[in-house]
């Protein structure tokens, strides 16, 4: 028998399989794993288009998101069939998703009422400033004791508030009790379990904990928080654990993926929680850093929520079963990581595809004193400074696109260093190595830079799809499915690559100090509080003294322009 025949006959005997939908900010994937070995058998990926209707606005089309899931399922099922793998061996499907991204739809028609407002979106900055100004002592941590989060544009509640204030269709649907709110997981689960014909409207504790409407202690929606944001509780999804059967798949039987009809959807985790599970960080103190569109460092703090004194978030890590306790994590969130490479590609045309960045940066091996702070959406952890904007500084006539590419990669590493420092201060126990995952980890130069800038080893699993793996583990281990054991003795050993620091720690500290200097220069660019007009757009006018000053300046500018018009 030849090797190909042997391989195909072996594959037929794989035993139970578990699939995962991984719906990220920039792409959607559907992946199928062997439940006994955690081996990735097949997958398909589709890019998602982001739209930027106005400065600081980031949106995605909910129907495109859903269609991308169907396409990935269909293509993956075709690939499995070609590999002679029986699709009927798929016993469960898990969902993992970009968090905080906010959707609202009509439960009668099943139609979205607006585009999905992406987590990076800044249109709610004026709302956030008004809310903070209303709090005692203008304290952005006013709700942190319940939510674990600062009041920020990042989280879902303010995006939902904007939709209710500015979109007539949303206002009408809320009044007529047809509106459903959800993050991406809720939208997908509702659609995949039947949509307007009996779809299940739910979310899990990890996604709910990113809305600012969820009490991380009671593990449910908080009436006081909903009242604070003036959001009716009936539009919210039911909160479930991260590992239980939510409903059964309903897919058109004429498609190959129609074979997935009737399979339980039984796992749901926000993408960063899924990566924590996929990296098997089940012990208090274990941590991982994911390099995707943004960069997210999570450290498991066990059964108790730990509040940070250094700008980190307190979040629900996972709750793996209805009767299981919730575990918590400290999180350092960086808005722009992989997104900076996409910006260099799409906005500046410095590279044609994202993989070229490594070669370009490696060609110089230094930023030559150039520092790039990609604060496109303000600064997240540890600063939570929405007024910051991106800057590139330290430029000379010698600086070229290769130095800029190198500075962009360094920026990702410096931002990770800042959140790692904050985490070490909060926990009092410094990490001795950093477990990493996500799309950017295929960049070996970035991984080496990260080890050099942190002065500790960086460890990357050989199988990079840890986010999807986490969702599959949650789905496969759910009660009523039980094809994936999460007992420590049953977890598969993970092979990994290790990057050790190679530069002098003094040089690392010097570069980091200059980075910190650059960060300070990026702050306070957007200092006035914008006030929404009737179209939901923002105006630059702020409270009294500054408002008068800006008005006066504007009249002078208009006058100058008017006079100049006569001179043309």
Automatic annotation (TrEMBL):
UniProt xrefs under InterPro entries: ATPase_NBD, Carb_kinase_FGGY, Carb_kinase_FGGY_CS, FGGY_C, FGGY_N, GK1-3_metazoan-type, Glycerol_kin
Annotated protein name in UniProt: glycerol kinase
Keywords recorded for this protein, A-Z: ATP-binding, Cytoplasm, Glycerol metabolism, Kinase, Membrane, Mitochondrion, Mitochondrion outer membrane, Nucleotide-binding, Transferase, Transmembrane, Transmembrane helix
Keyword field contains Membrane: yes
Pfam families reported for this sequence: FGGY_C (PF02782), FGGY_N (PF00370)
A GO molecular-function annotation: glycerol kinase activity
Origin superkingdom: Eukaryota
Associated pathway: Polyol metabolism; glycerol degradation via glycerol kinase pathway; sn-glycerol 3-phosphate from glycerol: step 1/1
Similarity comment: family membership: Belongs to the FGGY kinase family.
UniProt cross-references to PANTHER family, sorted A to Z: GLYCEROL KINASE, SUGAR KINASE
GO cellular component: mitochondrial outer membrane
Segments forming domain Carbohydrate kinase FGGY N-terminal: 18-278
Transmembrane segments: 546-564
SUPFAM superfamilies: Actin-like ATPase domain
Entry's Gene Ontology BP terms: glycerol metabolic process; glycerol-3-phosphate biosynthetic process; triglyceride metabolic process
EC number: 2.7.1.30
Subcellular location: Cytoplasm; Mitochondrion outer membrane
Domain Carbohydrate kinase FGGY C-terminal: residue ranges: 288-478
UniProt entry tagged with the keyword Cytoplasm: yes
């Amino acid at each position: 028998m030849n090797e190909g025949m042997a391989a195909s006959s072996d594959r037929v005997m794989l035993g139970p399989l578990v699939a995962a939908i991984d719906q990220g900010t920039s792409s959607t994937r559907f992946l199928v794993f062997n439940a006994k070995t955690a081996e990735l058998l097949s997958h398909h990926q589709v890019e998602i288009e982001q739209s930027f209707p106005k400065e600081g606005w980031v949106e995605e089309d909910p129907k495109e998101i859903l269609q991308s899931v169907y396409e990935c399922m269909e293509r993956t099922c075709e690939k499995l069939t070609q590999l002679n793998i029986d699709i009927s061996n798929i016993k469960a499907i898990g969902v993992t998703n970009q968090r905080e991204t906010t959707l609202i739809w009509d439960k009668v028609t099943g139609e979205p009422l607006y585009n999905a407002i992406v987590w990076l979106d800044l249109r709610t900055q004026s709302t956030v400033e008004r809310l903070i100004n209303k709090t005692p002592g203008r304290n952005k941590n006013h709700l942190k004791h319940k939510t674990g989060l600062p009041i920020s544009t990042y989280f879902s509640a303010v995006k939902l508030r904007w939709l209710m204030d500015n979109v007539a269709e949303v206002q009408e649907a809320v009044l007529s009790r047809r509106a459903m709110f959800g993050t991406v997981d809720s939208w997908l689960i509702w659609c995949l379990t039947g949509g307007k014909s009996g779809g299940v409207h739910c979310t899990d504790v990890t996604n709910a904990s990113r809305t600012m409407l969820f009490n991380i202690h009671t593990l449910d929606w908080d009436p006081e928080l909903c009242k604070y944001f003036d959001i009716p509780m009936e539009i919210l999804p039911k909160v479930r654990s991260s590992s239980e059967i939510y409903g059964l798949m309903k897919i058109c039987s004429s498609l190959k993926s129609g074979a997935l009809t009737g399979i339980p959807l039984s796992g749901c985790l926000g993408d960063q929680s899924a990566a924590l599970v996929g990296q098997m960080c089940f012990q208090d103190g274990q941590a991982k850093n994911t390099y995707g569109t943004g960069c997210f460092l999570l450290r498991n703090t066990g059964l108790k929520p730990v509040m940070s004194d250094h700008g980190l978030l307190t979040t629900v890590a996972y709750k793996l079963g209805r009767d299981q306790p919730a575990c918590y994590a400290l999180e350092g969130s960086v808005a722009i990581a992989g997104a900076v490479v996409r910006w260099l590609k799409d906005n500046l045309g410095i590279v044609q595809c994202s993989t070229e960045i490594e070669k370009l940066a490696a060609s110089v091996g230094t930023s030559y004193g150039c520092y790039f702070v990609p604060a496109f959406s303000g600064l997240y952890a540890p600063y939570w400074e929405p007024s910051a904007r991106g800057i590139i500084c330290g430029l000379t006539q010698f600086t070229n696109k290769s130095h800029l590419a190198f500075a962009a990669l360094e920026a990702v590493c410096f931002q990770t260093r800042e959140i790692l420092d904050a985490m070490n201060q909060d926990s009092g126990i410094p990490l001795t190595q950093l477990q990493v995952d996500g799309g950017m980890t295929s960049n070996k130069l970035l991984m080496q830079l990260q080890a050099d800038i942190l002065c500790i080893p960086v460890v990357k699993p050989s199988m990079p799809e840890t986010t999807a793996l986490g969702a599959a583990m949650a789905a496969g281990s759910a009660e009523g499915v039980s094809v994936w054991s999460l007992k420590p003795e049953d977890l598969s050993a993970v092979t990994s690559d290790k990057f050790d620091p190679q530069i002098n720690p003094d040089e690392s500290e010097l570069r980091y100090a200059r980075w910190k200097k650059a960060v300070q220069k990026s702050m306070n660019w957007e200092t006035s509080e914008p006030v929404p007009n009737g179209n939901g757009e923002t105006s630059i006018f702020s409270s009294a003294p500054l408002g008068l000053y800006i008005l006066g300046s504007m009249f002078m500018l208009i006058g100058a322009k008017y006079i100049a018009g006569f001179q043309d």
